[in-house]
Amino acid sequence: MNVPKEYIKNTAMVWVGFLLLFVFIYAFTLKPQVKKKNALGQKLQQAKQDYENVVKMSDKDTRDKLAKEIEELREKMRGFVTDMDGSVNLTFDISRLAKSSNVSAFSIKSRNHKKLFDIPGCNVVGENRMEVDFRGDFRQFARLLNQLERHDPVVFVDKFSIMDDRTGEGASNRINMDLSVFVEKKQES
Prior knowledge:
With 189 residues, the protein is α+β, with helices and mostly antiparallel strands. It contains four helices and six strands, in the order ααβαβββαββ. Strands 1, 2, 3, 4, 5 and 6 form a six-stranded mixed sheet that branches. It is elongated.
């Protein structure tokens, strides 16, 4: 059987034409529909998850468990955050710690008397910063540093510098520390 080349050529052109037509139809009509179907499927999954969460939240045991967990987290937070009244007393606490560490020429000053420093992305907690200067040897410095970081709430030592300042009265260092503490902002009702 001898098939003319012209027939094969025409048949191939028709097939290529239909193939291009199907690719065009798929690319411009079916593929966007598949993307929309997948996006709707994801939204449906999220809605089902939200529904399941709402059903779980309506359960009294789950609510009690979550309330207990929130209270535990608040209790942990109290070890790191103080309120405004506690912030005022903090300078006295730090002075008392310095006195117990036997440092000399102790001074403390707040960096901003008017308001708290904002913490990016946090609306509930601000930062109170202080600068501490004193004279002492390395052991006194280490003792005070240890007491500050064990303090409740925790006092963070952002940076410190120790300068050798030997003046006639034996070994003494001039020490400067930048401290910060987290303070709960007053919420407006």
